[in-house]
Design goal:
The chain is α+β, with helices and mostly antiparallel strands. The protein folds into two domains: about 160 residues, Pnp Oxidase, Chain A; about 40 residues, no CATH class. It is built from five helices and nine strands, in the order αββββαββαααβββ. Strands 1, 2, 3, 4, 5, 6, 7, 8 and 9 form a nine-stranded antiparallel sheet that branches. The longest helix is centred in the last third of the chain and has 15 residues. It is globular. The two termini are about 30 Å apart. The model has no long low-confidence stretch (mean pLDDT about 95).
């Protein structure tokens, strides 16, 4: 039997230093995500979303990022799911990207809000038909008696909506507005590179000011 304690890897792919990194964490994230896509990694857009319930129990799940800009990081899901219920009670969350082959991790924290109905509608109607029907068919996070429930629901909503299912009222987008970023680059001898960005001043597009970030190196 393989001993987990003996599973080790020497991280020697790249480095991350203050001189070569961007002062704006969004630009650094953009660079790393594009490199992960260019490297043809498996699902480079997959991210872990961590939320905390009212009883202070954390939970995580993997979703797919669907957009990012100065406003934040966007994904879409069922508002009635466990993560939706937890975000309704505590609107702060954490995200994590792990690009194993590049020996990189990005962690992001901040306040989460729902995107506009117009944004949710636009993305929903860009999805394949099966996915749009699936948003109606799956009572996400609820107990069901078996897969037959999902199949029956999909058949029922497919017959009801045909080729034009509307966006369900319980389905839409979230946007996390970052106030904390961390970029981790694996290095040899476990002396990894780890840069933290903390928001010290929010930007105001109405007057043309950009956010100001404090960049610091953390011990790995």
């Amino acid at each position: 039997m393989t001993s987990l304690a003996n599973l080790r890897k020497s991280y020697e792919h790249a480095e991350l230093n203050e001189d070569a990194s961007h002062a704006d964490p969004l630009q650094q994230f953009d660079q790393w995500l594009k490199q992960a896509i260019s490297a043809e990694l498996p699902e480079p857009n997959a991210m872990t979303v961590a939320t905390v319930a009212s009883n202070l129990r954390p939970s995580t799940r993997v979703v797919l990022i669907k957009g990012y800009d100065e406003r934040g990081i966007t994904w879409f899901t069922n508002y009635d799911s466990r993560k939706g219920q937890e975000l309704a009670g505590n609107p702060y969350a954490a995200l994590q990207f792990h690009w194993v082959e590049l020996e990189r991790v990005v962690r992001i924290e901040g306040l989460v809000e729902k995107v506009s109905d117009e944004e949710s509608d636009a993305y929903f109607h860009s999805r394949p038909l099966d996915s749009r029907i699936g948003a109606w068919a799956s009572p996400q996070s609820q107990v069901i008696s078996g897969r037959a429930v999902l199949v029956a629901n999909a058949a029922r909503y497919g017959a009801q909506f045909l080729l034009k299912p509307p966006r369900p009222p319980h389905w839409g987008g979230y946007r996390l507005k970052p106030d904390h970023w961390q970029f981790w680059q694996g290095r040899k001898s476990r002396l990894h590179d780890r840069l933290r960005y903390t928001l010290s001043r929010a930007g105001d597009p109405t007057v043309g000011t950009r956010p100001l970030w404090l960049r610091e190196r953390l011990a790995p």
